[in-house]
Design brief:
The chain is built from 6 helices and 39 strands. It is mainly beta. Among the domains are: 61 residues, Sandwich (Immunoglobulin-like), CATH 2.60.40.60; 102 residues, Cadherins (Immunoglobulin-like), CATH 2.60.40.60; 104 residues, Cadherins (Immunoglobulin-like), CATH 2.60.40.60; 98 residues, Immunoglobulin-like; 113 residues, Immunoglobulin-like (Sandwich), CATH 2.60.40. A hairpin with a 5-residue loop joins strand 11 and strand 12.
């Protein structure tokens, strides 16, 4: 309550209020100065209000005292419960954690005044989650309270925490929150095989790296803690089989590393071990993190193809060997216990010329055609061995046959020699050096000897000197030569080798006599060399002949096309039609249309152009035009058409093709006769239209029209 010393109680003063909440939260009695609150105050919204009050003269409105200020403080009461910062908390800890391991810290706040009483003092407690977890009352830290919590037994926990003010005393307000706690996995479980022995079967024909079977060790852990590595530690199949891990299923896949053979070994026993790849040292006390199992693999017998004694055969044969000579033998056997007999054959795709053949019973390979090392040194063929009882079971082996050389080729000149000698040549002058080659092979190198043929040794104008280095020189025997007497000399030379048997050949050297200058440079040879005939070369003659052949072929094709074009139809377009096809597709102008089609044209044969021929083909034979008698003017169209039809049927010159003629003529076959007034011999007054009523509903309109006309006349 406010009171002024100037207030005498006569009502001459008036109290007014201003400031925070004046007139809204706070009002003042202007007569008595009492200040009242209009509604409930909340300290958490505004804890302090500053107001100003003044007393004024009611009549003049002037203040009688200075304005006074006063402060209203709101005292706190416990009207707010603690609120957690999150509605739900999520946390995780590793399984098997020690007691007191930190999990998560929860926090709750109270909006009440912490400086006034215990309204804002919060205490935490656990309502749900014991005995697994505990919470510190003052800090809200949640910790583990139970030892060796196992994820494999229980993975999820839900803990409810309460926060209560007033220090947890009776009457305090409280709030709760939920904490979801998940146990994460650790590698505390070793792998274990569900059974101690596994058995598998594998055909002996199983390809390498093919799976034989799968085994799996169970591990209660997850993710990387459950990863397993499989290995073969012992057993007689340690080198024959291998095992790998399927990363998706954590299974051990047993595969074949070496070829299986039922006849050699039909049972393998392996010891397979499964080991965790990520071992936690903290849990080694739980035992070794591995397990082992025994795997028995039974090899099954299958019908196998024959097997050759070698993967490949190499044989040698001399090129002069007689036909049907055996050059070697291949051997194959059936590896199965039945030991089925085997037959041999040569794959003809590898011996297209059938140079070799094979004995189907014993595998002996022999020649069937002559051999020539100079043509083909190596022959690579394939021999097939198949079971007689089951030819589908077959195998192949390559056979490499080398043809050995024999001295069956005589040496010959390394090139064609054509040399010249000057007319002024001196005796013993070298004019040409000769060399030779031999197709045969020589391990120690070729050694050739050169000599003149016996028939030319004494009478020749030239001499031959063997240089003993596989070359020879031709020398002049006399001083001068005359090209007008002898223009060309042919010198036979015998070349022999030193191999066994000795082979020799006679080659000819052409020597032309030419005119030379004083330095021995050729100027001209005989007259044939000076005056060359102006003939054409072989290539030019072939080109001319080809041009003539092409020209003849072009002319023949052109003539054939022209002849074929004469027989082709002249009318090709679909839009083009024959003159005797007339289409009537217009309605016309009715009875009063005098410009319509004149049917009299059909009766007038003069209007037809007799000389008009067919346009679709070229006529083979032209007949004289045939005149047709003119029809009478009063001839009926039906008679006219029958007359023309009869004439064409009896006419031998009529074209042998179908004609289509369209005539817009009804004829006189209608039961109702013609509805047109053309050629009508009666008048409308003579007509009786009562019969129209008998024609049915289609003519009802017409019967009404003409029936009404009769009624009008009668009236």
């Amino acid at each position: 309550q406010l009171h002024s010393d100037q207030d005498k109680g006569d009502g001459s003063l008036k109290y007014i209020l201003s400031g925070d909440g004046a007139g809204d939260l706070f009002i003042i009695n202007e007569n008595t100065g009492d200040i009242q609150a209009t509604k409930r105050l909340d300290r958490e919204e505004k804890p302090v209000y500053i107001l100003r009050a003044q007393a004024i003269n009611r009549r003049t409105g002037r203040p009688v005292e200075p304005e006074s200020e006063f402060i209203i403080k709101i005292h706190d009461i416990n009207d707010n419960e603690p609120m957690f910062t999150k509605d739900v908390y999520n946390a995780s800890i590793p399984e098997m954690s020690d007691v007191g391991t930190f999990v998560v810290q929860v926090t709750a706040t109270d909006a009440d005044d912490p400086t006034y009483g215990n309204s804002a003092k919060v205490v935490y407690s656990i309502l749900q989650g014991q005995p697994y977890f505990s919470v510190e009352s003052e800090t809200g830290i949640i910790k583990t309270a139970l030892l060796n919590m196992d994820r494999e037994n229980r993975e999820q926990y839900q803990v409810v925490i309460q926060a209560k003010d007033m220090g947890g005393q009776m009457g305090g307000l409280s709030g709760t929150t939920t904490v979801n706690i998940t146990l994460t996995d650790v590698n505390d479980n070793p792998p274990r095989f569900p059974q101690s022995t596994y058995q598998f079967r594998a055909p002996e024909s199983t390809p390498l790296d093919s799976p034989v079977g799968r085994i799996k060790a169970n591990d209660a852990d997850v993710d990387e803690n459950a990863e397993i590595e499989y290995s073969i530690t012992e057993g007689d199949g340690y080198e024959v089989f291998g095992i790998t891990t399927d990363k998706d299923t954590q299974e051990g896949i047993i595969t074949v590393k070496k070829a299986l053979d039922f006849e050699s070994k039909n049972l393998y026993i392996l010891k397979v071990e499964a080991t965790n790849t990520h071992v936690d040292p903290r849990f080694l006390y739980l035992g070794p993190f591995k397990d082992s199992a025994t795997v028995r693999i039974q090899v099954e017998d299958v019908d196998e193809p024959p097997m050759f004694s070698r993967p490949a055969y190499i044989m040698e044969v001399k090129e002069d060997v007689p036909l049907n000579s055996i050059i070697g033998t291949v051997t194959a056997q059936d590896p199965d216990a039945a030991k089925n007999p085997v037959k041999y054959s040569v794959d003809r795709h590898t011996d297209m010329d059938r140079v070799f053949n094979i004995n189907s019973g014993n595998g002996s390979i022999f020649t069937s055609k002559p051999l020539d090392r100079e043509t083909l040194l190596w022959h690579n063929i394939t021999v097939i061995a198949a079971e007689i009882n089951n030819p589908k079971q077959s195998s192949r082996v390559p056979v490499f046959i080398k043809v050995l050389d024999v001295n069956d080729n005589a040496p010959e000149f390394a090139m064609f020699y054509e040399t010249f000698v000057c007319e002024n040549a001196k005796a013993e002058q070298l004019i040409q050096t000769l060399s030779a080659v031999d197709k045969d092979d020589s391990y120690n190198g070729h050694q050739f000897s050169f000599s003149l043929a016996p028939e030319a040794a004494s009478s020749s104008n030239f001499t031959l000197q063997d240089n003993r280095d596989n070359t020879a020189g031709i020398f002049t025997r006399k001083t001068r030569y005359n090209r007008h007497e002898t223009s060309t000399y042919f010198l036979p030379v015998v070349i022999s080798d030193n191999d066994y048997p000795i082979q020799s050949s006679t080659e000819t050297v052409t020597i032309r006599v030419c005119a030379c200058d004083h330095r021995g440079k050729m100027l001209s040879c005989n007259a044939e060399a000076l005056i060359h005939p102006t003939g054409l070369s072989t290539g030019a003659l072939i080109a001319i002949l080809l041009c003539i052949i092409i020209l003849l072929v072009t002319v023949v094709l052109f003539a054939a096309l022209r002849r074929q074009r004469k027989k082709e139809p002249l009318i090709i377009s679909k839009e083009d039609i024959r003159d005797n096809i007339v289409s009537y597709n217009d309605e016309g102008g009715g009875e009063e249309d005098t410009q319509a089609f004149d049917i009299g044209t059909l009766r007038n044969p003069e209007a037809i152009d007799d000389n008009k021929l067919r346009r679709d083909i070229v006529p083979e034979t032209l007949f004289m035009p045939r005149r047709t008698a003119a029809a009478r003017d009063n001839t009926d169209v039906r008679d006219f058409i029958n007359q023309r039809l009869k004439e064409n049927d009896t006419d031998p010159t009529a074209p042998p093709y179908d004609s289509l003629a369209t005539y817009a003529y009804e004829g006189n076959g209608s039961v109702a006769e013609s509805l047109s007034s053309l050629e009508s011999v009666t008048t409308d007054g003579d007509q009786d239209y009562d019969y129209l009523s008998d024609w049915g509903p289609r003519f009802k309109k017409l019967a009404d029209m003409y029936g009404s006309m009769d009624s009008d006349k009668d009236s």
